[in-house]
Design goal:
Length: 232
Amino acid sequence: MSNRVLIIDDDMELCALIKKCVTQEELEADVAYTGRIGLTKLQEQNDEYCLVILDVMLPGMNGFEVLSEIRKSSMVPVLMLTAKGNEIDKVTGLRLGADDYLTKPFSINELMARMESLIRRYTTFNQSMPVDTLTFKNMVINKENRIVCINGESIDLTGKEFDLLVFLASNKGRVFTKKQIYTQVWKEDYAFDDNNIMSFISKLRKKIEPDAKHPFYILTVHGVGYRFNREA
C-alpha cells in the first residue's frame, strides 16, 4: 500500500507546513499548486496515493472541479480544505465524493488526526479486498459464490442488488453519492436518474434489513447519499 500523500493548494507556506508534518509521520508528500498539476500527478502515479488533501479555492480549476475529475477514475480518500465555513460548500464537496472537510484556519493536530483516520480506513479496506467473505453483525457475504446469509438464512438477491450490497459493504463507513454508486456498480456513465438508485436501495433494504423503515446496514446520509453502517 502506498504511503504517499498529494497536497493540492496554492498557498505555498501552508503546503510546506503540511508536507513537513506529513513527512514526520513517515509518509511521503507531493505538492501541486494548481488543480491541473494535481490531476497530472495523480495520472502519472496511477492512483499510488493513499490520500489527497485538496483546497477548494484554487486558481483556474477549483477544488470541486478537481474532485469531480478525481472521482471519474479513483476512489482515493480526499480531505477538502476551505476558507469558507458555510454548509453549502460542505454539502457540495460531500456530494461530489469528498471523504472529509476541514475549514481554514485549522490546527495542524486536527488536520493530522483526520488525515490519519482516512488513511487508516482506506488502508484497511484495500488490505481486505482479496478476502472472499465479508462478515458483519448477523450477516455474511460470500463474494465468490455470490451468497448472502442473514442469521444463517440465505437471502435471494438479484445480480445488481448483490453488487450494490458488496460495493457498500466493502467500503464500510464511507459515504457515497448516488452518482458514485451508479458509476461503480453499473459500470457506465451516470444517467442522472436518482430514482433508480433509490429504488434499488429500497428493494435491497426490504430483503436484508430487520426493519426496512429503520435501516441498520444501509444508512441514508441526507443531502449526500448512502453508507454502510460502520457499526455493523
